[in-house]
Description:
The protein is mostly beta strands. The chain is built from one helix and twelve strands; from the N terminus they run E-E-E-E-E-E-E-E-E-E-E-E-H. Helices cover 3% and strands 36% of the residues.
Amino acid sequence: MPSKPATVARSGSVVTVKPEQGAPVTVAEQVITGPSGLAIPVTGVKQDQLTDTYDEARGAGRRHDAIDIMASEGTPVIAAADGKVEKLFNSARGGITIYVRSPDQKWMYYYAHLSAYAPGLHEGQHLLRGAPVGFVGSSGNANPAGPHLHFSINRMEPGERWWQGTAINPYPLLAAKPASR
């Protein structure tokens, strides 16, 4: 007896496929990539909508070392690059966060202030660029009036742990523009 076709639901640029038997699978469409090949990690955001907040001052005399990608609460967040989920973590500053290490172990992609993880996301999971990882939010110390994704990239040396590394500015890699000075 032939099986029934899967149900397909669309919400913005995200399509969810629900087979007759089994868990739903979410597929990100229209992945927008920067000049580096990294995907802009918030669906629907284009290069010209990005702002370089990397060098902005933050509390206690620290530098931001990331960019904030503004979007509505609940907007899907996708993997900027292939990698492995190294750590799912909830912190006072970052709130609901994800650390994804590149396959060559040289880069750590950090996603913070999420409202939730993508269903089924777990540590050790291998991701492809564009895979759903979570949803934009304002967890941690983010202002609830301005939900956003705090996105950073760290260059990793051999043996460095998920919270270590040297920050690099993701803005020129995503926006095809030089960093602000």
